[in-house]
Amino acid sequence: MAKKIAIVGFGFMGRTHYAGWKEIKGAKIVALCDKDLSQFKTVVTGDGDKKVDTSLDYGDAKLYDDMGKMLEAEKPDIVDITLPTWLHLPLVEQAFQSGANVICEKPMSLDVASCQKMIRAWKASGKHFMIAQCLRFWPEYVYLKNLIDSGKYGKVVAASFRRFNISPGWGKNGSWFLNEEKSGGVALDLHIHDTDMVQFLFGTPKAVTSRATYTDDGAMRYISTIYDVGGPTVIAEGSWGQPPSFGFEATFMVSFEKATVVLDAKRSAPLMVYPMKGEPFQPKLSAKSGYQLELEWFFKLVSGKKVPVVTTPEACADSVRIVAAEKKSAKTQKTVKL
Ligand SMILES: NC(=O)c1ccc[n+]([C@@H]2O[C@H](COP(=O)([O-])OP(=O)(O)OC[C@H]3O[C@@H](n4cnc5c(N)ncnc54)[C@H](O)[C@@H]3O)[C@@H](O)[C@H]2O)c1
């Protein structure tokens, strides 16, 4: 049976998810909501990502500027929250109260206490809940996860992850990203992707040791963390404020006992495997993005189909907790236990 989908927040990620839902058979987009109706007349292209939907024709979807009115009129089966981070908690709670299933963009929320409130609202609702930590669905990272779990190339010796971006000023109110109280800053907004990946691949670390560089007005601009995962050396770096000509870069380099695996989109072959024995090769992967695959996963879950456990709200809340420990470690210059 078709499911009614409503997207709330029609900026960069709202448009990205809109493109994704349109590809899913049985997903009927009934409503789009943004408090600023002019968002439906312009296209926010984010950090140069080409996955946003650039059409200004919204078909049968009704346009709203108020989520409460939209919920009452449309009674959607799935509410997709693609709002600025500080609004995740109140609007996720409101969406659950309406009886909808909810998918919400990452990071789950600004702090652990609000993540726990969201988990309570979800459990009280009896509905499904997903936080869109998209890397868990991104084909290159899924390939890496499967390699680690299979043991094909032995144990991981060392893993490093890097995520560097331009200053995030693409939102209509672009500066909300640069306001740490609204976005959580570079650590919670950007670097959490890799924190969550470390947790996904190696489990919750026992401790984190971080260092950061701050702007003159005290905002974190760069963070680097060593995660104590009780085995391999695992490091991740995140940075905002690269020159526009640099753009966005997300890479990893993972050394196994019997191979090295590299992701670097700026190479001619972004994902490469270099085995100790045999020729290097480029694995064949799904052409779909993690954005698309995460929506498909949630749609199946809500439709009562069997899906593997890739993510849980609790795991995403744990990533918020780990990032908080990283921020504390960077400030105190001390290792923080988890
Ligand atoms: N998964 C990813 O790779 C990824 C990438 C970018 C952003 N994000 C996350 O997605 C979320 C949204 O980021 P974005 O880049 O789309 O931001 P954005 O600023 O481009 O869009 C947010 C939209 O929400 C609207 N809005 C604000 N308050 C509202 C309200 N009360 N009701 C309805 N609409 C409202 C704004 O008018 C704006 O159009 C953030 O949590 C961000 O961290 C995730």
Which descriptors would you attach to this protein?
alpha/beta; Rossmann fold; Dihydrodipicolinate Reductase, domain 2; 2 domains; eight-stranded mixed beta sheet; 10 helices; 26% strand; binds nicotinamide-adenine-dinucleotide
Structural account:
The protein is an alpha/beta fold and 338 residues long. It folds into 2 domains: 3-134, NAD(P)-binding Rossmann-like Domain (Rossmann fold, 3-Layer(aba) Sandwich), CATH 3.40.50; 140-285 and 313-337, Dihydrodipicolinate Reductase, domain 2, CATH 3.30.360. It has 10 helices and 14 strands. It has helices spanning 12-22, 67-74, 88-97, 112-125, 139-150, 175-178, 180-183, 185-202, 290-302, 313-332, and strands spanning 3-8, 27-33, 62-64, 78-81, 101-105, 129-132, 156-166, 207-214, 220-228, 233-242, 249-256, 259-264, 271-275, 336-337. The strands form 2 sheets. An 8-stranded mixed β-sheet has the order 13-12-11-7-10-9-8-14. Strands 3-2-1-4-5-6 form a 6-stranded parallel β-sheet, with helices on both faces. Helix 1 crosses helix 9 (290-302), helix 3 (88-97) runs parallel beside helix 4 (112-125) and helix 4 (112-125) runs antiparallel to helix 10 (313-332). It is globular and about 60 Å long. The model has no long low-confidence stretch (mean pLDDT 94). Nicotinamide-adenine-dinucleotide (NAD) binds next to helix 1.
